[in-house]
Amino acid sequence: MGNNLIQTIKDHAVPLYEADDLNILLNEINDQKYVLLGESSHGTAEFYNIRSEISKKLITEKGFTFLAVEGDWPSCRQVNRYIKGWDNKNKSARDILASFNRWPTWMWANEEMADFIEWLKTYNEGQPEDKKVGFYGIDVYSLWESLDEILNYFRKTNSPHTEAAQKAFACFEPFNRKAEKYAASASFYSEGCHDEVIELLTKIQLHKTNESDSEENSLNIEVNALIAANAESYYRTMIIDDNASWNIRDRHMVEVLNKINEFYHNKAKGIVWEHNTHVGDARATDMANEGLVNVGQLLREREGEENIFIVGFGTNRGTVIAADNWGAKPEKIVMPQAEAGSWENILYQAGPGNKLLIFNRDNKHLFHNTVRHRAIGVVYHPAHEHYGNYVASRISERYNAFIYVHDTHALHPLETEQVYI
């Protein structure tokens, strides 16, 4: 299988030397509603830079209208305000990225993102208000920050829902913004705030037309209420069932994408930046055997496979920003060469240099074999890579295309104060 696959890659791969070489990928994207751009680590500069180049082309040449990332909604809202010209206080993207203070901060507070955000702002300055590109965070972790946003806005506008927001906020207050404390209380002692956040979400959804759409306030309030409800469920579940909490999180991210799409009156075309484990269809991996779903699978099922284009990313070796424990200080870690027989190793054997593979009906069957595909998270131990950093995958079913970078380098994190969850 290995030698045959090496030759098949040689026959079908396109070399990538510069940004214009990505045009062959852009030619495959026309009427799709979402383009999902992955990464095999959260700390690799080349993945961010290549995704930025693809996103610029999708925006300028294909009419894509928003970017959604694996980040917190409240922090990403600050980016959205900045690039749309609503923020008169912050002078640069680096100022804005200081709001990304939840560990792992380096995922978005980095030099690579700062450069791309400045490009988005410059692009938007030449667009009418209804054509400006948006930037949104679709993750589930910002429970307390989302409640803060709701309560502060309701108090400012004298909303009739202020009391429901205060009730939900008061319920969570004893846990000192410590997710693990709430998780233990809700899981083991049935002392949770489920009813309070559901009541708040219901009130907001029933009366959402009453909120002003100035600077997307209605969308902001509705999504923050959705986060409060889903984060409560996520934290209540995570101690007793990892698989259930994973599914809650990925289903939440799809819900938020749906809310953004509705806000754009169903004319949105979205670019999604997340880890390969979220965007690469779970049904083509051993995740499916564990009952796990992910964003790529859910979007294909909801929108139809023809409306979703998924790009996976991988590398053979290099350096990466990660930590040796959850909440620990990030560091530059040397990533060893991909293990023998893995997807990345086979790509390496197919010849040095960066490569692009596009899977279509003519060649998809040639890449149907199950191979181990590397996945590095925010916590990484190279010495133990064999046991926890490879996902068995049928590559041509998991993605529509794959970008391989031969040697990669660590992101350049910005200095920020960190809050640990």
Automatic annotation (TrEMBL):
UniProt cross-references to Pfam families, sorted A to Z = Erythro_esteras
- Organism domain of life: Bacteria
**Record protein name field:** Erythromycin esterase family protein
Source species of the chain: Metabacillus fastidiosus
**Native organism taxonomy:** Bacteria, Bacillati, Bacillota, Bacilli, Bacillales
